[in-house]
Amino acid sequence: MIQITNLLLPDFVIHSLGGGSDLFGMLEMTAAIAGMAALALAGIPALARKLARATAAVLAGARPHWLCCLL
């Protein structure tokens, strides 16, 4: 998934958002921080169980967003 994001994100930043390397860097940094926070939260057993039960709902909610970006 990360490879696809790294492939599509520069084009999205330039053409859709009208940004440059500063915006791209900020989005990359935000994604890295969010990933670290997700790993930290998933390390808590009670939260990991809740996240495991909610995975299908999260993926179903995220799918339309990714389809829009790919088109």
Give an overview in words.
With 71 residues, the protein is an all-alpha fold. The chain has one domain. Helix content is 89%, strand content 0%. The protein has helices at 2-16, 21-42, 45-70. The longest helix has 26 residues, at 45-70. The radius of gyration is 15 Å and the shape is elongated. The model has no long low-confidence stretch (mean pLDDT 78). Keywords: Membrane, Transmembrane, Transmembrane helix. The chain crosses the membrane at residues 23-44.
N-C termini distance: 17 Å
Given the C-alpha coordinates, what overall shape results?
Answer: elongated
Order of helices and strands: HHH
Q: State the helicity in percent bands.
A: over 70%
Spans of at least 5 consecutive residues with low confidence: none
- What percent of residues are in strands? under 5%
Number of strands: 0
The figure for the number of domains is: 1
Whole-angstrom Rg: 15 Å
Transmembrane segments: 23-44
Keywords: Membrane, Transmembrane, Transmembrane helix
Task: Give the SSE map.
Elements: H1 2-16, H2 21-42, H3 45-70
Brief description of this entry?
With about 70 residues, this protein is mainly alpha-helical.
Key words describing this protein structure:
mainly alpha, 71 residues, single chain, 3 helices
